[in-house]
Amino acid sequence: MRKLSRKSLIILVLVLAVAASAVWFSRSGSKQITPASAPKAALAVNLIHPQYHDWPIRLVANGNIAAWQEAVIGSETGGIRLTSVDVNVGDRVKRGQVLAQFSTDTLQADIDQQQANIAEAEANMTDALANAARARALQGSGALSAQQIDQYQTTAHTAQARRDAARAQLRTQQLRFKQARIIAPDDGVISSRSATVGAVVPAGQELFRLIRQNRLEWRAQVTSSELARVRPGQQVIVVTASGARVAGKVRMLAPTVDTATRTALGYVDLPTDSAARAGMFATGTFELGKAQALTLPQSAVVMRDGFDYVYRVSADNHALQTKVGVGRRIGDRVEITDGIQPEASVVAAGGGFLADGDLLRVVPMAGNAQ
């Protein structure tokens, strides 16, 4: 074989290099064009429209549960010993029921003494009246002076006054005897007891506290801006710290607003025999009426970076991330206050997997569920 010349060899190397470059560029160009020419949908989605619902308007407030009225029952007489205490905390009592008993020995002795004083006063009065009558009979005879006759009359009046004072003192002693029995002033539940058998207590010392008629109330703290929305007679659902739900009704609103907190108290009557207890903290919801709300399922709303979004669908089936305002939530639906119109088409679920501009494949929803 004849050897190639140096010039021919160089030409052959250049031809092979050009051919290799053409093949490389052909393959590289085909790789870049293929993905752009066959885009794929990001997610198959169902579309829904917002719906209007008649939703209740509610106001939430906090407050404490307290007794409607708590009667303080104390001793009306002092210096005598408690001989029995017949009730304890939590006991239900009736009006007029005996709660405790003081010793009556000293009181009975005082009554006996006063009855004797009355007998003596009545005897003195009888004698004084007789003397006055005799003096009046001698008034024209000159046997007695006018001054002496007046003295007999004065003595008779004084004896009558002493008899009346003794009788009044007897009624006082009898009243003290009656007060030796501590009586319930009303139906209710004993909430506190400080009475102890054997104690000698002074007059006026507290012995018991009674929740009258076992009535409790929730004292809601309502801000001054919301005060006008609350009316007597409105229904309230009170939720205690234990989770118990108690139905109540607004009885009245306080006539003044606290200058420090800018809140007023709303007094809500609670039913007897409920799970509420005096002293509990509770949250309540006032039912203020109803109003239409534009709503979507909770699954259609996505929270990102502290804001709420939904995904609408453009005419060419691309996802449009739309910021919305949300309000009340009931069950699995949420109120949309702004951001979309009622006729908007919104992705029903799966928004957490979408990004703005993703291509979507719309699938009809079974049963046309909204």
Largest sheet: 6 strands, antiparallel, barrel
Number of helices: 3
Gross geometry: rod-shaped
Structural class call reads alpha+beta
| Average pLDDT rating | 86
Which value, in Å, is the CA radius of gyration?
48 Å
Helix content: 25-40%
**Could you tell me the strand content as a percent range?**
35-45%
Number of separate strands: 22
- Cα distance, first to last residue? 86 Å
The assembly state of the depicted protein chains is: single chain
Summarize the helix and strand pattern as letters.
HEEEEEEEHHEEEEEEEEEEEEEEE
Low-pLDDT windows of residues:
29-38
**Strand adjacency order, main sheet:** 3-12-15-14-13-16
Characterization of this structure:
- By secondary structure, this protein is an alpha+beta fold.
- Mean pLDDT is 86; it is low at 29-38.
- The longest helix has 33 residues, at 105-137.
- It has a six-stranded antiparallel beta barrel. The protein has a four-stranded antiparallel beta sheet with strand order 4-11-9-6, with no helix packed on it.
- Helix content is 26%, strand content 38%.
- The two termini are 86 Å apart.
- Helix 2 (105-137) runs antiparallel to helix 3.
- Strand 18 and strand 19 form a beta hairpin.
- The radius of gyration is 48 Å and the shape is rod-shaped.
